[in-house]
Amino acid sequence: MRAMLGTMRAELVGAGGVVERNAYLTKRYIWWDLAWFVWTVANTLTIVFIAKGIEAEGGTLDVEETMTTLLIGAVVWAYLGILFEFLMETVAWERWEGTIEYTFMAPLSRAMHLAGQGVFAVLYGMLRATFLFVICGFVFFDLSMPDAQFFAAFVVLLVASVSFIGIGMMMSVLPLISPEKGTQLGFVAQGTLLVVSGVYYPVDVLPQWMQWIATISPATYALDGARSAILEGEPLTALWGDIWPLLVIGAVSVPLGLWVFSRGETYAKRHGKLKRSG
Amino acid sequence: MFDIQEAVMEAVPVQKGVAVEVHELRKEFRRKDSRKRGEKRGERRFRVALDGVSFTMEKGETVAILGQNGSGKSTLVRLLSTLLLPDGGYARILGHDVVADHRAVRRVVNRVSVEASFFKKMSAAENLSYAARYYGMTGKETRAKIPEILERVGFPSDRRDEPMEALSRGMQQKVALARALLTSPVVLLLDEPTTGLDPRSKLEVQEFVREIRDSHDSTILLCTHDLAEAEVLADRVGILDRGRLLALESADAIKQRYEAETLEEAFFAATGREFEAEEDEDDDDREVFA
After folding, report:
1. Which of A5, A25, A274 sits opposite B119 (nearest CB)?
2. Is A29 in contact with B121 (Cβ distance < 8 A)?
3. Considering Cα of B88, then B91, then B96, then B98, what sign does the dihedral take?
4. What is the Cα Rg of chain B in Å?
């Protein structure tokens, strides 16, 4: 019993070590991160300006609402990108720095290792998403959202993050299998996930087969829930229809992600790929 | 007071006497080069990295394994570190199988490799701090221990917060030693820890390994190119050639067995090749087997 408690505590301390390591790295690379953030802001602005462009061309639409719809899509896209980036770095960055062997031979379980990576990604990603939303929505466009339930939107995104982490775990195995091209495939997953989830448009406009895929994509419910909370002012209690599918997908995707990662790790250990390449 | 390390070690029953047991250990890798004439499409070519290696190490013993690039030294260290899966045979550390019981093995093993691998932008203190957490050490435990251990390896205290990239190779290797010792490993795997160091740094690292050997109960497996280093630091010396362990005895016994004056001559007599001669391998193979 005492040994079990000790092991559990050691695991939590270990997961905290992953968070600590990422905090050190973020501190050391903060100016690069700020430069990357400027790019994200610019990218988001180009998307939100589309609504203004349509109006200028004579289209009829509620500009404020369309801009907010697009803004939410762009922020979720950026958030998902950061989450996947951190999880992909579980292998890719460590391989480059050469620390991968030391991390993978440590007694920390892979579940807690990846959980630590996911927790930091969520904390950092949420902070970044908040800044992005405030700068683009309020500072730049001065959008009006009088009924917005920001807390409810925040909770929906937080619940969706569990599923995103599960999918990210599956993606993070790719650099183990292909050190050269594996990381790039993470972007493919991010794009595919969002294209079927109605990132800048309603899911109804998609072909039927894409709509079927949309029902198992956590991004669908994250986007729908966030838009309902911000645009329609739906409180958290009214968002259960989006939250329960996210809980189900999360309950499936995290164990599946761990299983896929463990298969990838076994493959890497069998073929000698768990080594530095930088 | 509740002690994590003590509680964790309770889960690791220790077999008395033998620290490392390796039996008929075998590892082969698929070659990356193209098919040779006469080979059928889809026919995979394999290269043996370890070919039925067997030996044991007593607790507190230091064993040096000599071998050229591609002899299988690093493969052996990676297998014992649970970073590779063997294709045959088994390896046990303190009675724990490196495959079936890898979590228990990881608690008692640490290593220093030829490359002092760190996050280069982070400082020595930061690199040690997060790495210690992976072994269950809390901030309270490491706050005092990290400065203490860095001082012990001769790392200047005023450079603790400098990024690793600003440090010399010798300094980085000292931090690597500190990282390994911070977790109080029962078995320490040293994979060419002095290769590429300047003579002074090399002597300092060797002196520190000697100190660990003499003042701790650690079992040390030292893989090296350096014959003098092996002779001075190890209780027994092994000769690994093309994945086969040709001998494992005290340096004097090896010289006597091969009727040689020096270890270099003994190595030549055992393998039929000069010690400094490199294996004729492509870089990809060497990367895997070295």
Report:
1. A25
2. yes
3. negative
4. 20
- One-letter amino acid at B80 equals L
Residues of B engaging A, defined by a Cβ cutoff of 8 Å: 2, 4, 6-8, 10-11, 29-30, 75, 78, 81-85, 103, 106-107, 109-111, 113, 115, 117-122, 126, 129-138, 163, 179, 287-288
CA B56 to centroid of chain Cα atoms: 15
Nearest to A108 among B30, B82, B134 (CB): B134
Q: Check CB contact of A52 with chain B, cutoff 8 Å.
A: no
Whole-number percent of chain B with pLDDT over 90: 57
Taking CA–CA distances from B123, the nearest residue in chain A reads: A24
**Burial category of A229 from C-beta neighbours within 10 Å (exposed 0-12, middle 13-18, buried 19 and up):** buried
For A274, residues 6+ apart whose C-beta sits below 8 A from its C-beta are A100, A101, A104, A176, A265, A268, B78, B83, B84
Nearest to A6 among B4, B129, B131 (CB): B4
Nearest CA-CA distance, residue B84 and chain A, Å: 4
Task: Test A98 with B130 for CB contact under 8 angstroms.
Answer: no
Domain assignments of chain A as residue spans, ordered by start: 2-271
Tell me the mean pLDDT in the region A137-158.
95
List chain A residues with CB under 8 Å of B2: 6
Query: A106-143: string of b/e by CB count within 10 Å (b at 16+)?
Result: bbbbebbbbbbbbbbbbebbbebbeebbebbbeeebeb
Query: How many whole angstroms separate alpha carbon B234 and alpha carbon B25?
Result: 22
Q: How far is A4 from chain B (nearest CA, A)?
A: 8
Nearest alpha-carbon partner for B66 in B266, B216, B287, B285: B266
Compute the distance between CA of residue B29 and CA of residue B31 in angstroms, rounded to an integer.
6
Residue B4, pLDDT > 50, answer: no
Contacts 24+ apart (CB under 8 A), A142-145: A143/A64, A143/A67, A143/A68, A143/A71, A144/A64, A145/A68, A145/A230, A145/A231
pLDDT of residue B33: 57
Confirm or reject CATH 3.40.50.300 for domain B18-289, answering yes or no.
yes
Strand, helix or coil for residue A138: helix
**Cβ A13–B103 below 8 Å, yes or no?**
no
For chain B, which residues make up each domain, given as ranges?
Answer: 18-289
Q: Which residues contact B198 (CB under 8 A, 6 or more apart)?
A: B169, B170
Q: pTM of the predicted model, to two decimals?
A: 0.87
Query: Is B1's pLDDT higher than 70?
Result: no
Whether B179 and A102 lie within 8 Å, measured CB to CB? yes
Q: Would you state the structure tokens that stand for residue B9, as one six-digit string?
A: 């070690």
CB atoms near residue A34 (< 10 Å): 9
The string of pLDDT tens digits covering residues B95-129 is: 999 999 999 999 999 999 888 899 999 999 999 99
Select from B133, B179, B190, B289 the residue whose CB has the most chain A CBs within 10 Å, as the one to mutate to test that interface: B133
ipTM of the assembly?
A: 0.89
Q: What is the mean pLDDT of residues A121-145?
A: 95
Contacts of A33 in chain B (CB under 8 A): none
B57: how many CB neighbours lie within 10 A of its CB? Answer: 21
Span A212-265, pLDDT tens digits: 999 999 999 999 999 999 999 999 999 999 999 999 999 999 999 999 999 999
